[in-house]
Amino acid sequence: TGSAASIIPENLLLSQFTKIKYEPVQLRLRTYNGTNVPVKGRIMIIVQHEGAYFMLPLVVAKADEQRPVPTLLGQNCLEHTRLNWAQVLRIDSIA
Q1: Contact yes or no for 57/6 (Cβ under 8 A)
Q2: Residue 1 — very low, low, confident or very high, per pLDDT cuts 50/70/90?
Q3: In terms of Cα–Cα distance, which of 89, 58, 87, 53 is closest to 74?
Q4: pLDDT by residue (tens digit) across 55-72?
Q5: Distance (Å, whole) CA 47 – CA 68
Q6: What is the rounded distance in angstroms from the CA atom of residue 35 to the CA atom of residue 11?
Q7: DSSP string across 16-50
Q8: Phi, psi of 42, rounded to the nearest 5 degrees
Q9: What are the structural domain ranges in the chain?
Q10: pLDDT in tens, 73-89
Q11: What is the dihedral of CA 36, 66, 25, 14, to 10 degrees?
């Protein structure tokens, strides 16, 4: 991914993770073509990978039918987890 930040759309956060509240953050995001992506806030998540735990930020982006936003695993998470892409096959569970 070329994204500097890891992103979750607000509508996905609100529908799937109803108990998680996001905090305000001063951040501007733009797509590769320069379009601004409205930022609603940030959440901190705990990621477990190969026996190690990481506290990583996810930017909550405003999304709707006219302006969809993909869920992205950004460089900020990838540099910590160092995924072995040959072994990335599936997600076993979401906690």
Answers
A1: yes
A2: low
A3: 58
A4: 889 999 998 777 788 887
A5: 25
A6: 19
A7: H-TT---B-----EE-TTS-EE-EEEEEEEEEEET
A8: -145, 145
A9: 7-81
A10: 787 777 767 766 666 65
A11: -160
Residue where the block lists tokens 């569970």: 93
The structure's pTM equals 0.75
Residue 12 has which token pair? 């996905």
The CA distance from 5 to 74, in Å, is: 5
- Measured torsion, CA atoms of residues 31, 36, 41, 46, in degrees rounded to the nearest 10: 0
The closest of 38, 94, 23 to 68, measured between CA atoms, is: 38
Cβ–Cβ < 8 Å for 45, 55: yes
In angstroms, rounded to a whole number, what is the distance separating the alpha carbons of residues 52 and 66? Answer: 39
Q: Which residues of 11-25 are buried (b: 16+ CB within 10 A; e: fewer)?
A: bebeeeeeeeebeee
